[in-house]
Specification:
Length: 151
């Protein structure tokens, strides 16, 4: 929905899920475009809206499931986020807004299919700080703070 603050100025921008509610979430502006994660016929794909030319940025998970992108964070000249490619599990990704430059930053948790599930992603000065789950975390803890070089 787009809204200018008046009842008459509220309108549907684009119906991206003809089967039901798209439940868009995680809105983030980057390079004059709005990025978000909707539910579509293929659930949870990173989408951008360049003034209503709403398109999927990249099909990260080529399988039947969605990539469930979230935690969109702008750092430098890239947009960072957590997503699941169906192989490594949820890991840290980055994009410049193009399909070809939407890439996995690092497979932080190398256990196949488990992923690092980056739960927090924060820009702190010249660094990007993440809080992933790693294979080396202490028993029964599972999470540890890690500095991720987001360059």
């Amino acid at each position: 929905m787009e809204d200018n603050g008046t009842a008459g100025g509220t309108a549907l921008v684009k119906d991206i899920n003809l089967a039901g509610d798209s439940s868009p979430s995680g809105f983030k502006v980057f390079n004059n475009a709005l990025y978000f994660s909707p539910t579509t016929a293929l659930p949870h794909r990173a989408v951008e809206d360049r003034r209503h030319g709403t398109v999927q940025v990249k099909d990260i998970n080529l399988g039947p499931g969605g990539s469930d992108p979230f935690r969109f964070t702008v750092f430098g000249t890239a947009l960072y986020f957590s997503a699941d490619d169906g192989v490594t599990g949820p890991e840290l990704w980055r994009t410049d807004g193009t399909e070809g430059n939407t890439v996995l930053v690092k497979d932080i948790n190398a256990n196949p299919g488990t992923g690092s599930l980056v739960s927090e992603l924060t820009v702190f000065g010249p660094r990007c700080i993440s809080r992933p789950t790693t294979a080396s975390a202490a028993p029964n803890c599972g999470r540890q703070t890690a500095r991720t070089q987001c360059r």
